[in-house]
Amino acid sequence: LAIFLNRAGHYGNVILPEDIAQWAGVSVGSVVNCTNHVMVAVVDQHDDFIQFPALDS
């Protein structure tokens, strides 16, 4: 989760996967895999937590 938050908290080419890999002590592939897995988990929960308000409210 820390890898994802670090990567998501930066914009553009300010931080590269190689920079995060060095910071976290993992491989570049692990950075990409962690990011993808967290995004899949977030998107999977989208419909449970994000809904339009009821029309009568």
Automatic annotation (TrEMBL):
**Name of this protein:** Uncharacterized protein
